[in-house]
């Protein structure tokens, strides 16, 4: 029978996080140089969950040493490595290479310095609540569902716990602190799921700053149509 969620996380949970970091990215790690995807995983995990790195190293190495045999394949009791663009015969060596890079990073205390996200996975891992509102409320269907941008923000706030709204405000502040130029800010919100343009006369950064400002204002101070 398939792995239970608990057993999956116990045996492969952090391995899965590493593999997810390769979505849309080449698995071009070498023994001397980690890929851009692995560097993004290391950068984010070092600065958010450093204790998880040792778990990732163990799970990667264990899977490389003991890939699922025919019985486990037949029963479905295994973690299926998604297609990362490598021949099946090279997967075990690749996983061992990832484990080596992570192990050296931990042993030597070599954490990639903070930087602007460079992969789709890293954008979403670093700004999860911002991805939630942009991808869920500002998709290409937004003009059919809401009168305007303020109405979409209103709807988000109405159905979202205040602590998550506060998290959104913090994530917007963190994004603005990256000091992206207008074109890079547009790429950032697109990576996070926004499929419509900001309101007329606003750049993506200026609009996000306005939303964050309104969300921090006491409800009584917000004008008609403003985000609540």
Low-pLDDT stretches: 220-228
- Domains, number: 2
Order of SSEs: HHHHHHHHHHHH
Rg, alpha carbons: 21 Å
Instruction: Name the beta content range.
Output: under 5%
- Overall 3D form: elongated
- Mean pLDDT rating: 90
Number of helices: 12
Q: Main β-sheet: number of strands, strand sense, barrel status?
A: none
**Roughly how much helix do the residues carry, as a percent range?**
55-70%
Number of strands: 0
Q: Determine the structural class based on helices, strands and strand pairing.
A: mainly alpha
Distance between the termini: 47 Å
Describe the protein.
- It is a single chain.
- The chain has 228 residues and is mainly alpha-helical.
- It has two domains: 5-108, no CATH class; 127-221, no CATH class.
- The chain has helices spanning 5-20, 36-48, 52-65, 70-75, 91-108, 120-126, 128-137, 142-145, 149-158, 162-177, 182-191, 204-216.
- Helix 2 (36-48) runs parallel beside helix 6.
């Amino acid at each position: 029978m398939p792995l239970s969620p608990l057993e999956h996380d116990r045996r492969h949970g952090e391995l899965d996080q590493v593999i997810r970091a390769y979505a849309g990215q080449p698995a071009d790690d070498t023994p001397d140089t980690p890929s851009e995807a692995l560097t993004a995983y290391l950068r984010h995990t070092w600065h958010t969950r450093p204790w998880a790195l040792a778990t990732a190293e163990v799970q990667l190495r264990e899977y490389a040493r003991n890939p699922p045999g025919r019985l486990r394949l037949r029963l479905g009791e295994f973690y299926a490595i998604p297609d990362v663009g490598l021949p099946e015969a090279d997967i075990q060596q690749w996983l061992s290479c990832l484990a080596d890079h992570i192990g050296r990073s931990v042993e030597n205390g070599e954490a990639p310095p903070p930087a602007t996200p460079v992969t789709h996975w890293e954008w979403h891992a670093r700004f999860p609540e911002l991805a939630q509102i942009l991808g869920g409320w500002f998709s290409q269907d937004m003009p059919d569902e809401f009168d305007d941008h303020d109405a979409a923000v209103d709807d988000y706030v109405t159905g979202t716990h205040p602590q998550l709204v506060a998290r959104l405000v913090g994530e917007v502040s963190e994004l603005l602190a990256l000091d992206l130029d207008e074109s890079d800010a547009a790429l950032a919100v697109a990576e996070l799921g926004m499929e419509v343009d900001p309101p007329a006369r606003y750049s993506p950064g200026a609009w996000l700053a306005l939303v964050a400002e309104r969300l921090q204002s006491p409800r009584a101070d917000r004008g008609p149509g403003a985000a609540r």
